[in-house]
Model the fold of this input.
Amino acid sequence: MRSVKQKLILDFIEAFIGERGRPPTVRDIVHGCGLSSTSVADYHLNVLESEGHLRRDKHVSRGIELRGGRRARPGVALVPVIGHIAAGEPLPVPASDTWSVPAGETLEVPEALIRGKKGVYGLRVRGNSMVDALIGDGDIVLMQAGVSVANGDTVAVWLLREKEATLKRIYHEGNRIRLQPANSQMQPIYVPADNVEVQGKVVGVLRLVA
Done:
């Protein structure tokens, strides 16, 4: 059973993530919850972890992740971040259903950014092939699954034969598809149309400031 102090810590972590888009450090929790030391914070975090309220990676400064039961505050929407996507050369991933696995991280984003869209999820970007579209390495792209796409849309595509995924602008050119980077220093990728499965379309970009 959670103590009053442990509930305070959970509420602080949730509010911190909602306001800043990243978890607090242990020192943030000490100061934000009026605790006497980091060892006291560690004790309560260990209890909360053992009870299944959160998960910790003690080797990472902000390695705290809330688990289950989290609700969005008014005016914001919860978006699951389900993995990474290459914005350079295609990045091998285990299978195309990678994009539908349960999320290990959830972000609160303004509802105005989602605009009522369904099936929105987040992917962390690896690479700089989309920098001219203001999508850089480490950014989070908000994707919408199950929607039609048009030439010029930025999409996450699954290359069926290579079992790789990449983030590019898509252009249908007869029997082939051109996957166009938004970077003047990089060349497009040409693939047969039957080798491409669109996993989602970019509907927003988040840049988290450290």
The helical segments are 4-20, 26-33, 38-50, 111-114. DSSP finds four helices and twelve strands in the chain. The longest strand covers residues 76-86. Residues 194 and 205 are 29 Å apart (CA to CA).
